[in-house]
Amino acid sequence: MAEQFPGPVLDLLDAAGDRTVFEHAGEEVSGARLLGMVRRAVGGLGKHGVGPGDGVAMLLGVGPGAFAAILAAHVLGARVVGVRPGLTEAQREHLLRDVAVRVTDRPEGPGTHGTPGNHGAGLVLALDELLSAPDDGVRPRVRARPGDVARLLHTSGSTGVPKACAQTYAAMTAGWAHRPEAWPPAVRALAGRMDRFLVFGTLASQVMMEYGLLALAAGGTLVTADPPVLPDALVRYRATASVITVARLTKLVAAQRASPVDLGSLRALMVSGSPLEPGRLREAAEVLGPVVFHGYGQTETGMISMATPEEPAGSLGVPPVDLEIRDPSGLPVPPGTDGELFVRTPAQGCGYWREPALSAEVFTGGWVRTRDLGRLDASGRLWLTGRVRDVIIVNANVYYAGPVERLLAGHPSVAEAYVVAVPDDSTGEAVHAFVVPAAGRAPDLGELRALVTAELGGACAPTRLTLIDEVPLTAAGKPDKRRLAAGG
């Protein structure tokens, strides 16, 4: 039986030896040195009693120390919780409620390191403290157990608090990123372009960590960018690959048209998080060349399919996982017919943390209900055609319309509120609010934005406001948001 994750990743670092696997803040870090950092972090966490099943929150960036701390927590079999920047206090508190230890490389208030932290986080440890632990030079024993939850992957928090998708150690062990023998053809093509993978933001990001592991397994180097300004960072760090959202890709293409720079080293941009319109893809290919890989996946499933630059515009390639297109009654439909996507992937989640009812709705009979619409053509290629869910995708994060509408409708100046997604060059999509004013009141966009920002975060706040006398209705008497969007 193969060793549990992250054992195979430790083997990758061991095999790398003196080869540079990280470039960070002007410093090169070899595989051997990074493995030493992992050993130190294991010792530091172990000293504080961290073991299988314990919750450990990671408030970390993308440096080698962050990578080592996350890997160390997995070595010990902990339940790793990534905490990204930009959450509201209520959302942050919700994420930290079940953790015993918080590891951070972010500035903290006085007296927090090594002491009980705020927001139910328990013990707060500075990353530098973990990495200063002794290194015994012995390969750490992986204590992870297959059925334990390895990490909680959080959604965008658009329902007020983020949902946490639980992924077991067995699922992480079965994942494709760190296993070259499991790479599907599109991933293998991508791996050959990952010589210098530009990373930014946080390794708590599911996408950033997955592609980071792929780069290491492909013999590449992770190169950190701070700030990740494009195209400057691509040029400065001679990046061959990076992750990009649709909105940032649009900006990069526009910048290259207006004032071209030398992107000769660039070989792959992995677009993820939201659909890429065929017109945008063709424009990117004209300006940047054949470098765009369009990935499709979900927090609950990991990667479902990936289109290489050679795929027809709009296609997501042939899915390398089990996938069924089903009609509303749950029966599979023939090729060429639209329906809802149900998938099974080796690394899919096992449910939502502490959400049994929602888990039963989405994780059903071994399948994951994506609530996305699409079809398979005669060649087996996947084409997305819409979303079952009423959502807005801002900077590749999914936000539900319902909570925003309920919040707006509770404002004294608002009688009814409806929100739709509108294209936005900066964020991909943005919230457009259609509001029926309360009698004698005049809703103000600034007030409504402030309200939503305080409760749900700035990404959910409406960027446009249209006052309407009444909402248009469908033939069934329901609000017709398609007509709103078309007329707005």
UniProtKB/TrEMBL annotation:
One Pfam family here: AMP-binding_C
PROSITE patterns assigned: AMP_BINDING
This protein's record includes keyword Transferase: no
Record domain AMP-binding enzyme C-terminal: where: 404-478
Domain AMP-dependent synthetase/ligase: 17-353
InterPro entries found in the cross-reference section: AMP-bd_C (IPR025110), AMP-bd_C_sf (IPR045851), AMP-binding_CS (IPR020845), AMP-dep_synth/lig_dom (IPR000873), ANL_N_sf (IPR042099), ATP-dep_AMP-bd_enzyme (IPR050237)
GO molecular function: ligase activity
UniProt keyword list: Ligase
Protein name: Long-chain fatty acid--CoA ligase
